[in-house]
Amino acid sequence: MSFLDSYRKKMQMPSPNEALPGREQTILTAATHFVSGRPLKGNWPEGYKRILLGMGCFWGAERLFWEKPGVYVTAVGYAGGVTPNPTYEETCTGLTGHAEMVLIVYDPKEISLNELLALFWEEHDPTQGMRQGNDIGTTYRSAIYTFDDADRDMAKKSRDDYQAALMARGLGPITTEIADAPVFYYAEDYHQQYLAKNPNGYCGLKGTGVSCPISMAG
User: Fold this and answer.
1) How confident is residue 11, by pLDDT bands cut at 50, 70 and 90?
2) Are 112 and 28 in contact (CB under 8 A)?
């Protein structure tokens, strides 16, 4: 495959026939959060909620959220594509269709969904399509995956509010995908809480500089 062909593959979603086959077994990952020690895969307190957010490289995005009061636990992984149980190397080819995502489990009594969404919109550029800065490919697309209808509607409302703010500053249309949560595949152990393990590691987060006008309530 030529460089141009490889580039094109990374910039477009693969069809089921093109996608890598993946595997039946899950990829091994950590059992607990490196910072908080809380479980990554469930047994979370009753009444806590979840959302999946994709905003480019998941290393910096995860740290952004685990530092927020009211967020119980975070984990990184892959979602929105075709390949079951993909590896990191497979997602980087663009042939799984998955985006790098952060799972956020939070206490809605301490932090609202709108607060999380405002942070999401402000801390990356949701207008870039299949890239985020120098990180290029479907893996780095902007995405919000929700676990109930009310949260999906709230996410769409926040998108519309932020789009108006972006247009007022002369910026382009938001390309963020908003959909019901698909299967979330946990990433490998070394990716979990990567910037806590590697404080000088890469963080590609860069916002537009436009504040999000959505209400912090709700």
Assistant:
1) confident
2) no
